[in-house]
Amino acid sequence: TADGYSITTGSGTITITKYTENSYTTAPIATQDFTYDGSYHELCSAGVAQFGDVLYSIDGETFSTTIPQANTCGQYIVYYKVLDTDNYSGIAEASFTVNILEVDKTDLIAAYDAAVAYHQTIKTDYPDIAEALYEIINNASVTITTINSTTTEVSNVILFLDEAMSVAKVDVVIEDINSIGTVEYSDACNTLITTAREKYDALTDEEKADVTNYPTLTVAETTYNANKAIALIEAIGDVAYTDASKALIDTARDVYDSLADEEKALVPTSYLTALEAAEDLYEAVDEAVSTVNSIGALSYSDTTKSSITSARSAYDSLSSAEKAIFPASSLTSLENNEAAYSVIEAIYAIGEVTNSNASADAIEAAREAYDALTDEQKELIASDDYEVLTEAETSYDDAVDDARNKKILGFSLLFLLLIIIGALVAFYVVKKHKKANA
Questions:
Q1: Which residues contact 43 (CB under 8 A, 6 or more apart)?
Q2: How far is CA 162 from the centre of its chain?
Q3: Where are the alpha helices (DSSP H) in 180-327?
Q4: Whole-number pLDDT of residue 425
Q5: Tens digits of residue pLDDT in 131-181
Q6: From 127's CA, which of 62, 134, 204, 294 has a CA 20 to 30 Å away?
Q7: What is the pLDDT of residue 406?
Q8: Rounded Cα gap, residues 199 and 172, in angstroms
Q9: In degrees rounded to 5, what are phi and psi of residue 260?
Q10: Cα 46 from chain centroid?
């Protein structure tokens, strides 16, 4: 005893019962779906139960406390549970799904398809270049069909494809430029140069820098353009006053003017001189023809006379070469206008009509001149101007008739007067005779 207390000993029974409400204090959590990268990854976080170890399995049969890992693409079912014991209850098996995703190969497939399509376009004409490209395409196809490819691997293959495509395009341009050969003005040569230029222009700046024979292309273009101008000048041939000849001259001029200075320098001076001579020849004739065409309808006026005089002067001032191509129709038109206007002048030169030799001669001259005209020339004289002639003829005929009538009347009066005088003389003689007899 101590301090008034006493201890009494005895015996009893303590019962420990099985714990039946076991649960997770921290449940395993599935790892979020992720893209394959070649490394092992745990498929879930660690779980913690109130009692017992959390067991894991990815086949549903073999369980262990090790958190499952995986490093290949696919879908994984992670099972987890806690085993039942005498002291505590287990936790029923549960599961969740984790996916290791394949790397997105959309860009790779697009690059592959582009390379295959380009390979198809060059395999016939550029077999060596196509073969080198095909090796890269074949390697890319392996990566496309391989499920477990990393992002880095896919990116590298895309890069290899892009580089192979660039190399192929550059090599094609180089080969095209080399195929141009001797430059001449022909459709075939133009096609070679144009094709090389179009393919070169389609390259990136970096690719263009790798075209080692680019200067050959620019020289070919310069030479071709100069040769084109030369050929078109030669095509002018003998100048004629026709639309076709004018078109040849204009085309040659347009092409020459479009040349760069270095291209013009390749055109011999003699060709430029020939072009300018053709232009001058055609222009001189064209101006003369325009002057003839500007005469218009004829009238008795200083304006009409001046137009005809100018047209004649324009034609007469032409050189023999220019007259040689002057259209016959325009010359005929000029001559018809001159002839017709000469008659108009003769008509208006009649002036006031009188019964005189001067009027008779003027009217006769005008009539003879008019009658000498061709039908085409007569059509150029306005009806009003022709009426001046016909009215003059009528007026002259009237004047002649009046004079003749007056003359007849004078003779008649004179004859009557003579008769009267004769009668008076006879009367006087008879009267005198009667006086003598008386």
A1: 30, 31, 58, 67, 68, 69, 70, 76, 78, 98
A2: 34
A3: 187-201, 205-208, 214-236, 243-258, 261-264, 269-293, 302-316, 320-325
A4: 74
A5: 999 999 999 999 999 999 999 999 999 999 999 999 999 999 999 999 999
A6: 204
A7: 73
A8: 8
A9: -75, 165
A10: 72
How far is residue 177's CA from residue 186's CA, in Å, rounded to a whole number? 16
Residues 93-138: tens digit of each pLDDT: 999 999 999 999 999 999 999 999 999 999 999 999 999 999 999 9
**pLDDT computed for residue 412 by the predictor:** 67
Tell me which residue of 253, 182, 187, 194 sits closest to 223, measured CA to CA.
182
> Among residues 22, 70, 20, 81, which one has the least CA distance to residue 47?
81
8 Å CB contact between 308 and 335: no
Q: How far is CA 265 from CA 85, 227, 251, 261, 262, in A?
A: 105, 11, 19, 6, 5
Distance between CA 183 and CA 219 in Å, rounded? 9
The count of other CB atoms within 10 Å of the CB of residue 128 is: 10
Those residues of the chain that have pLDDT short of 70 are 1-2, 408-412, 415, 438
Residue whose entry in the numeric block shows the structure tokens 């969740």: 96
Here the tokens at position 71 are 């490093």
